[in-house]
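A quick aside before the break. I want you to see a complete sequence-to-structure record at least once, exactly as it would be stored in a machine-readable document. Don't worry about memorizing anything.
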Amino acid sequence: MKSGELRVPTAIAVTSADMALPAQDERTMPAVVLAGLDRKPLDQALTELHTLTEQYGHVVVVCSQATPEPVVRRLYTLRSLLESDRIALFRPALPPLGVAVLARQLRQLASCDLSPGVLACAGRLLTHYIHAGAVLGSVARLDRVPVGLKAHARSWVPGSQFAVLAHPEPQLVKVAPGATLKGPEFSTWLLVAKGQLPSEWAGGLGTRWGVHGLRETPLPAESPVWWGTGRMVEFCGYLADLSVLYQLVASVRRASCHWCGIDVIGDRCVFCSAGPPGYDPPAPRALEPRTPA
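That is the input. The structure line, written in tokens, reads:
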């Protein structure tokens, strides 16, 4: 970049408006919403994505593993037709609310002096610090978290509810007085997305986890697909402070992708999927334990 030239932030895109959470702070970049990709004519969608790439330079599309397959196929088709190594498709193993939170964290970081490759790869690092789960009215169709036979049997009992943590370590408990889930060992905020169940237990989890505060948001449309039921409340513990997010990313050693030449962190380039040869991926950095209340 030439001296004095205005830097255009890398675009962070999502595939539906409900995955574009409100800005966390005044520096959070707006999300680019690629809505209805599978319903638009191919040439129209191709023109829109090409224009977006030319405008921003690089585009990181963040979507969940519950995103409809026609949308995902269209994304890969567009990327292939454009023959572009400036479009990254990132589908982390997080529930939809966690994916929306991660996309917002990348939007926060997009305002910083991070190169497109480092910013795109930061998503893989930041997933380690997201605690994502839900309160479910049934686990009969839950196939993304290990569920024992006893829990399956209990899920048919009227009124049964289960608290499930899908990430970073799977946990499942029956909702009852005193029941809880192991939470983060560092200070977080808690985001709760109300569905078709009361949200009191999920809100109380914030007290047990010692969070800074609790915010609410509508339930993403993809959440019932991911969790296997619409009778649910989704929650997510996450880091909200931009300075903490930046320090986590900046502390990781950078390398150049041997295939496309872009700067990366971690063990794989998100733009071309190549990994730097002879590179040992770093362990996630430990954060300071939260101070007991």
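Two observations worth writing down. The chain is about 30% helix and 20% strand. The helical segments are 42-56, 69-82, 96-109, 116-126, 149-154, 200-209, 223-227, 242-250. We'll return to this after the break.
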